[in-house]
Write a structure and sequence with these properties.
CATH architecture: 2-Layer Sandwich
Radius of gyration: 15 Å
Distance between the termini: 39 Å
Structural class: alpha+beta
Strand order of the largest sheet: 1-2-4-3
Number of strands: 4
Strand content: 15-25%
Shape: globular
Number of domains: 1
């Protein structure tokens, strides 16, 4: 299953790059965004069940989703902060970074939408920032800042 998912992810990346080459960045993102949001939303309850996440109001539990996807996709990183309402993960290696060189908007826009649609399905108060000079831009890491807002 992991093999299939990783290859499917590479297919999505290559499909995006192909769309971008033929249609331009803006149109490629416009075409891909609804599909990425759909995938993220659909996987949310499945992953929550598989990972036995019962507390959708705690980033310490919700962070299991990013750990699982990183394992599947071969991403290596570490959690610097893992608290109830705030978690930060520094990803130091991504097998997609080289392919996405000169296409970092895939990470800034589509990866972010994928994560947002997953986590917001489980908790509408979720927010995400992806900071730093990303691996796909030749940077040393991708920093994922997950927050649950209190109202």
């Amino acid at each position: 299953m992991d093999f299939f998912l990783k290859n499917f992810a590479f297919f999505i990346v290559r499909f995006y790059i192909t769309l971008k080459i033929f249609l331009g960045k803006e149109k490629a993102i416009k075409i891909m965004t609804p599909f990425i949001r759909f995938l993220g939303s659909v996987r949310a309850p499945i992953m929550a069940k598989l990972l036995k996440i019962n507390r959708y109001d705690d980033m310490r539990d919700l962070s299991k989703i990013q750990d699982m996807e990183d394992k599947i996709f071969g991403v290596k990183g570490r959690w610097e902060i893992k608290e109830k309402e705030h978690a930060e993960k520094f990803e130091m290696f991504c097998p997609f970074a080289r392919v996405l060189n000169r296409h970092s908007e895939f990470c800034h826009v589509l990866v972010k939408e994928f994560e947002l649609s997953t986590f917001k399905r489980l908790n509408k108060n979720y927010s995400l920032q992806i900071d730093g000079k990303l691996l796909s831009e030749g940077g040393p890491y991708c920093r994922f800042v997950h927050k649950l807002q209190r109202f």
